[in-house]
Amino acid sequence: xxxxxxxxxxxxxxxxxxxxGMLVFGGLIDVYFSYTENKAALVRLQREKAALARVRIExxxxxxxxxxxxxxxxxxxxxxxxxMPCLDxxxxxxxxxxxxxxxxxxxxxxxxxxxxx
Length: 117
Known about the structure:
The chain is mostly helical and 117 residues long. It is 70% helix and 5% strand. The chain is rod-shaped.
């Protein structure tokens, strides 16, 4: 059974154009929605990263302010101890440049024993 005719070919071409156009249009719609979903996911990810960075910066600033206030308080405490006449603390103990050491003979000798190493 052989079908010939210009009318049949005309309908086949029209059918192929309509089906092809619908496939291309459906693909374009799919690409558009995929783009908007990926864009929304990227915005969510960037907001999460920004929130995490904000939390880390706040923690750092809290620790930095606590550290500086602790250092200032410690310096004030040491200078107040050094000025107190009732305590008999040798100056070499308070003003020792080596952190973590103390004079083992309390001013009678020059030997130092390390606390932290």
